[in-house]
């Protein structure tokens, strides 16, 4: 685990999994994008469609904001609705006055990209494969006044203990925890969403992953009223559309939370099936980062770039890993899919590995 300056290292921070399934990849079986494949469900599509009759009016986010606040047991002044979690990273980078931001990698690259675009020099804490990509809070510089970490972390699928992350809090420090995939963890154990006892805490949530709403753009921020106010001032007017507000209100309803909890257990079973299948290729040098806790797994394999290209020829898209700081060309990320899809992929992987 080490700290480094991120300038000029060559990582493509703007590369995301959807690039693997655009254009000539549109017909591939998608294991590159971390969005649940069987969503949105019919009842949610109907709720969104029902909002279209109100498109002549400007969006009114009060009901959705209140619903999100109630879901986490918070007052509404601790909630900000955003056009996906990605917008929240931009708002944080632009609205907060920070001197030394630090991003814990490997993780989703958009937070660092947003900080750099806003003119900040960003330091990195690089977690190591030999440590299982686990966090050592002591590795974060004491003078960092903004720390960003994912939990569970994309792409490593590591779920850090909530106590370890909360231990990063310091007076004068903003602690940003990206919990975009936390609702895919059974019981949301290790979640910090809803906590008000951690100073400087900012929790980001996305509703696009579990509910298949990446094209709609909806997420939210949970933090102190002062931080929420600062971020809100940096937003444009009416940043979240009426259909997205309808989706937000629907996705935090008791029915939706129960469905998400059921889906999290299904993901857990499907991930175990994927990991067991990958273990069959251990003799070929295939290694999975374990324990994996998110709806994706990080895999190390020899000549991963060539294997990834062969998989495309066989009809499967996977996420390259070398665009994540701290990872190299030997890494790929695989989204968890249903058993039938996984079995097809494992067969293709065997052929791609020459077995």
- Largest pleated sheet: 8 strands, mixed
Supply the helix-strand structural class. alpha/beta
The proportion of residues in beta strands is 15-25%
First-to-last CA distance: 35 Å
Structure summary, number of beta strands: 13
State the CATH topology of the largest domain.
Aspartate Aminotransferase, domain 2
Morphology: globular
Would you identify the CATH H-level superfamily of the largest domain? Answer: Type I PLP-dependent aspartate aminotransferase-like (Major domain)
> What is the architecture of the largest domain at the second tier of CATH?
3-Layer(aba) Sandwich
Number of helices: 10
Could you name the CATH class of the largest domain? Alpha Beta
Helix content: 25-40%
Order of helices and strands: EEHHEHEHEEHEEEHHHEEHEEH
Q: Which strand order spans the largest sheet, edge to edge or round the barrel?
A: 1-5-4-6-7-8-9-3
Care to describe what's here?
The mean pLDDT is 95. Helix 2 (62-71) packs parallel to helix 7 (242-251) and helix 9 (304-313) packs across helix 10. It is built from 10 helices and 13 strands. The two termini are 35 Å apart. The strands form 2 sheets. It has an 8-stranded mixed beta sheet with strand order 1-5-4-6-7-8-9-3, with helices on both faces. By secondary structure, it is an alpha/beta fold. It folds into 2 domains: 13-38 and 258-352, Aspartate Aminotransferase, domain 1 (Alpha-Beta Complex); 42-256, Aspartate Aminotransferase, domain 2 (3-Layer(aba) Sandwich). It is globular. The longest helix has 26 residues, at 254-279.
């Amino acid at each position: 685990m080490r700290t480094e300056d991120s300038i000029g290292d060559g990582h493509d921070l703007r590369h995301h999994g959807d690039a693997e399934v655009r254009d000539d990849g549109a017909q591939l079986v998608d294991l590159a994008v971390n969005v649940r494949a069987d969503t949105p469900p019919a009842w949610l599509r109907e709720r969104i469609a029902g909002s279209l009759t109100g498109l002549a009016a400007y969006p009114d986010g009060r009901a959705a904001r209140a619903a999100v606040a109630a879901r986490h047991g918070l007052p509404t002044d601790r909630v900000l609705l955003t056009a996906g979690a990605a917008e929240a990273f931009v708002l944080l980078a632009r609205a907060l006055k920070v001197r030394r931001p630090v991003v814990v990698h490997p993780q989703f690259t958009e937070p660092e990209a947003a900080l750099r675009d806003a003119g900040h020099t960003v330091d990195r804490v690089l977690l190591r494969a030999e440590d299982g990509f686990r966090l050592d809070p002591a590795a974060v510089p004491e003078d960092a006044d903004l720390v960003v970490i994912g939990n569970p972390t994309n792409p490593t699928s590591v779920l850090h203990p909530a106590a370890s992350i909360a231990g990063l809090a310091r007076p004068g420090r903003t602690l940003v925890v990206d919990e975009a995939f936390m609702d895919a963890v059974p019981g949301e154990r290790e979640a910090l969403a809803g906590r008000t006892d951690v100073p400087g805490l900012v929790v980001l949530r996305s509703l696009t992953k579990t509910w298949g709403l990446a094209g709609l753009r909806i997420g939210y921020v949970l933090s102190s009223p002062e931080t929420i106010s600062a971020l809100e001032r940096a937003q444009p007017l009416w940043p979240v559309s009426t259909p997205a507000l309808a989706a937000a209100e629907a996705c935090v309803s008791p029915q939706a939370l129960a469905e998400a909890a059921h889906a999290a257990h299904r993901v857990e079973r499907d991930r175990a099936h994927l990991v067991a299948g990958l273990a069959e290729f251990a003799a070929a040098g295939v290694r999975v980062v374990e324990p994996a806790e998110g709806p994706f797994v990080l895999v190390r394999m020899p000549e991963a770039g060539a294997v990834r290209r062969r998989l495309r020829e066989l009809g499967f898209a996977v996420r390259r890993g070398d665009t994540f700081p701290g990872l190299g060309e030997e890494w790929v990320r695989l989204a968890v899919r249903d058993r039938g899809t996984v079995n097809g992929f494992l067969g293709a992987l065997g052929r791609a590995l020459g077995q």
